[in-house]
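Working notes for the structural subgroup meeting. M.R. asked for a predicted model of this chain before we commit to crystallization trials. I am recording the input and output together here so anyone reviewing the notebook later can reproduce the run.

Input as submitted:
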Amino acid sequence: MTSRRIRAVVVAYSSGTYLHDLVASFPVASKDPVAVTVVDNGSTDGTQDWVRAQSGLELLESGRNLGYGGAANLGAVGVQEQWLLVVNPDITLHEHALDLLLDAAERWPSAAVLGPRIITDGRVYPSARELPSLGRGMGHALFGWFWPANPWTASYRRERGEPVEGVVGWLSGSCLLLRRDAFEAVGGFDEAYFMYFEDTDLCARLGRAGYDVVYAPDAVAAHHGGHSTVHHASAMTKVHHASAYLYLSRQYAGLRWLPLRAVLRAGLAARYVLATRIGRLRDGAQPTRPA
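Returned structure, recorded in token form:
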């Protein structure tokens, strides 16, 4: 049996009481103590003072907003535990969630990353998906607005049927249990992604390196979502589309794909304009990780 020691790396950015709830959920989620490092990306709400006042929490102040992957990489430097839990501060772990993820890791010895079932607003969020492809991505982008059940979106989001444990393309970065040596072997998160698609890219690289990406829905986490992006919704939508282009353009690199990349850039720019206009008309917060 492998070690079950976990180091949680939490990237905080004015996370408020969400972070308090996450930290309180660790003893509920794991029968063993969880070491916790909070990487603060420049909070202005007193997050740093709260972390300093808590016994057993380590605080790393980045000095500036490094983005999600960059901050997570900083928190992972020098970690000795075998497992890294990279987790959003607005996640609350359900009972035994970490123990169940580790149980799944025993069943999947080639797994480098495992993710729980994520519940948002009382519903299962499609956090385990297929890797984006050109056809699947274009169909989802074009038809997902008004035809949610279209085959491209259904294929990409894997929403049909009961959640089943097994290998998937990628997992939501809001809660990832990572085998530390595998994470280090592929160089951690690619910091070219400031936010969004860093999870997709990491899972794709782990898959290419021969590891499994495993969805373990017996473990459950609640994602409250949008706490740090709601006040910057337009900017975050722009970042999301820029990251989408970065990911897809890398899948179609080289001169022969130059016309396709131009079409991708134009299409994503148009989608950003449409998303911004729709966002202005829609009440409520934007999700932390757009669909």
